[in-house]
Amino acid sequence: LLFQILGAVILGFGIWILADKTSFIAVLQMSSPSLKTGAYIFIGVGALTMLMGFLGCLGAVNEIRCLLGLYFTCLMVILITQVAAGLVAYFQKETLKEELSRIVGSLIEKYDPMNDDERNLKDAWDYVQTQIACCGWTGAKDWENNEILANQSMTAYPCSCSNSSKDFHVDSGFCNLDVPVNGTATYADWPVHEQGCMDGVEKWLKDNLGVILGVCTGVAVIELLGMILSISLCKNIHSEDYTKVPKS
To answer: What is the pTM for the complete model shown?
Structure first.
């Protein structure tokens, strides 16, 4: 039962990644095929874990050694894969950070409130900037690369970055800046948050690192207990009795 619940949790996490349209996960999922592939992997692992839980229960109740062996093998493969994925993510964190910078940089550069084809992606990024109270990836300066703002001599700014009370009811698109005498401006003239979203995302990860590690450790412990239990049951079954296999 524990493994079926665990499988349902993993399956649900993968579905959430695909369905989420309003968080930073949505920005990555819509911009990077690798995260979408990862979501499908979560769904597959979750479904496999639920199936293995069912087979493990069937093998234990009916004392079917081959099912218990299959259960042990699949759990071992899943555990090794999870550990390997964690190690790759840890040692490739700088590469991942560069990839995130590239994805968000491209999004900011091409951001166009009038382009309905990428509205979900724009809305997701606006939501991130509003909720984290940040602007750009490393800072508001990133928005100087936006083609529309550059054409307007930087006399407009992203509304979702605003720290001004008059813009609180606007959370998308561009807001007009009080035009300076010379008719041009820079990001330093904008009433926006100084913090970049990279710092906000890193802070969120650090604040929730204990929870993330706790969940990962709990999953690994449950899988190890399942492997130990299945191998113990296998040893206690002295001979295979195929008459105990349920007939369809």
So the answer is: 0.64
